[in-house]
Amino acid sequence: MTLTFYKYQGTGNDFVIIDNRESIVSKNNTKLFARLCDRKFGIGADGLMLLELPEDDKDDFTMVYFNADGNESSMCGNGGRCLVAFAAFLGVIENKAIFTAIDGKHHAEIKDGLVYLQMQNVSEIEKYDSHLFLDTGSPHHVTMVEGLASFDVENIGREIRNGAPYFDLGSNVNFVEKRNGNSFAVRTYERGVEDETLSCGTGVTAVALSMHAMQLTDKEQVCIQTPGGELKVTFTKGENGYENIFLIGPAEQVFKGEIKC
Ligand SMILES: N[C@H](CCC[C@H](N)C(=O)O)C(=O)O
Q: Which residues take part in binding substrate (predicted)?
């Protein structure tokens, strides 16, 4: 079979996207998804997404996300932003979207060339001596470091991801350095890619909320610099935690292709 796919990237987090509204691929085809994400034997990507028909008639589409290991995973913030851009490219939406992903419903809007993706509310942030842990649609371990540019993200990230209390289920691991004002830099070891990625959307969201929770910023809008580019996170702090959380940044179609599989 020849499969048409689209390659997208959001601040360097890159994805294979398939328009699966006619169910051309089965969601259980882990082997295929891993091969398509393989950077030597396939197209190469941090993850793969299927754009599917909506189950709820108030939705525009359904998002299904797979990590590079081919396994279906939790929410992907950069992937969600890229899928909204793809839906606009296909004409499935104009510039506003409502869609369902594994963590529930998301509202999104394309404005001034950026994709604004609403993330799920976060009611709880666990605070420990060495780090914070929270779930922004995917699980995130957040820790402050000095000398981020030369930090051994791959090895130390892998150790934390596989160690207590995460073990097999794992967590994404974010290493953060304060820049000026309310801007921070982050590098992320991503679960399911099992390596550092240039950016992680749910990770950037987790870092922004963590910086506010640790009072390292008092603003409800935080700029986060990742190796793949800059993302902005806005939110409001309510009695039940963090709400109205938006992950804001670019999403680009890099190329369209066909692959025999
Ligand atoms: N690999 C992550 C999911 C994708 C997260 C990341 N690509 C993002 O943009 O949020 C996990 O298994 O938790």
A: 13, 67, 77-78, 172, 190-191, 201-202
pLDDT in tens, 33-57: 999 999 999 999 999 999 999 999 9
- The parts of the chain modelled with pLDDT lower than 70 are none
pLDDT at 134 (0 to 100): 98
Q: Is 190 annotated as a binding residue?
A: yes
- Report the C-alpha gap between 48 and 100 in whole angstroms: 16
User: What pLDDT score does 261 carry?
Assistant: 87
Ligand 1 centroid to Cα of residue 128, in Å, is 23
Centre of ligand 1 from the C-alpha of residue 207, in Å: 14
Q: What is the ipTM of this complex?
A: 0.94
Query: Which of 102, 173, 200, when mutated, tests ligand 1's pocket best, judged by the most ligand atoms within 8 Å of its CB?
Result: 200
Q: Is the CB–ligand 1 distance for residue 73 below 6 Å?
A: yes
CA nearest to 17, candidates 257, 260, 194, 261: 257
Select from 191, 172, 197 the least CA-distant residue to 44. 197
In the chain, the domains with their CATH numbers are: 2-117+250-260 (3.10.310.10), 126-249 (3.10.310.10)
Per-residue model confidence (pLDDT) at position 182: 86
Residue 77 is labelled as binding a ligand: yes
Active-site residue set: 76, 200
- pTM to 2 decimal places: 0.97
Question: Do residues 223 and 182 make contact, with C-beta atoms less than 8 angstroms apart?
Answer: yes
172 CB less than 6 Å from ligand 1?
Answer: yes
**How many whole angstroms from 174 Cα to the centroid of ligand 1?**
12
Question: Can you tell me which atom of ligand 1 is nearest the CA of 67?
Answer: 1
